[in-house]
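Hello,

Following up on my earlier ticket. Below are the two sequence lines again, exactly as submitted.
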Amino acid sequence: MRSPEFMRNGEGTMSPNPRNRGFPTNFQSTVSVQKLRRFNSLILIFRLVTFCFSLASTVFMAMNSHIPNGDAAGEWVSWTNYDAFRYVVAGNAIICLYSLVQMGATIWEILKGTTILPETIQVWFDFSHDQAFAYLLFCANSAGTVMAQALRSGSAWVGQEHSCNEVNAFCIQSAVSISLGFGGAVFLAASTLLSGFKVACWIINGSRFHL
Amino acid sequence: MRSPEFMRNGEGTMSPNPRNRGFPTNFQSTVSVQKLRRFNSLILIFRLVTFCFSLASTVFMAMNSHIPNGDAAGEWVSWTNYDAFRYVVAGNAIICLYSLVQMGATIWEILKGTTILPETIQVWFDFSHDQAFAYLLFCANSAGTVMAQALRSGSAWVGQEHSCNEVNAFCIQSAVSISLGFGGAVFLAASTLLSGFKVACWIINGSRFHL
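Thanks for your patience. The regenerated structure is below:
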């Protein structure tokens, strides 16, 4: 039978002898460690993809300022004039930073076999942030979609009246940024499933992973 | 030690003797059944609250048609003119219906001790739908928020130009409906945590609940 302490930050799975450091002491532990490593590698891939999507989305939207066609002396049409687009940039930038930090933490866990924070805090921290940020990102991109659609339909222009025919690049770049943001949200939602599974394992077995 | 079959739709927990039907055969089973019943009661409460919020939100938005002040012969300002508000109604109506069905299924499970669908399908069905619909509802209400804000700022009126001063009731009613929708989304997210835990229990222990 498994002890509830089994695999808590490597206790009981690693030899206390410093010369054997990092080497599991029995077959069951080896399988567990390998499974946990594979699980963490999958999380790492999801976090990397989320990072790429949200970084691209942030950059696309943050560089989205254009001069309307045939209006060389005119005012720039910029994402900063629209609350919803500011929300898209903020949401994606937060996720970008969060994914970067989490990638670091996951790589640490894969290499060292222990979590940076105490394990209980780590599993709850990961899951709660993943879940909350996934909702945040879906909300932000959804808000951006409505604004992009309102601009395309001709209403909702701030300050000066334009149409997407005059500032086509602005409308297209917004749409691309929002689509990339939704891509990031989907992969963050996938990470949520995995970190949620870790929390459940922790509650049920008292370890980060079940054998 | 628990068998993986333990508590699968009551197998092994109920006596095969028809006279003992519904009565657990040993102490461990009694505790498990009671725990599962309490867990399901909590889910039922969350679903009921979600249902109330989303029903209220749907009704508030669906009845949101007003004549602008001092414009007795004018056109009605209605939620049907706005894509985002239609999305709010659709999203909340779906959740309302879904919560009703799930309440029925949960009451069945509490009373009969078995799930309506085969247990594997049931736990995955519950969790996947909870998760997807929670994202849907957050997105819908977030979209509605942007539209409500755009109307308040004076842009984005469809057909005729108004302001929230002229059609104050329309703007307020939209805001109330969206707030109620967010309330429903939060409780749906809470249900997701519980149904997600059931899935994890299923994967790890092969039963709907752990002792």
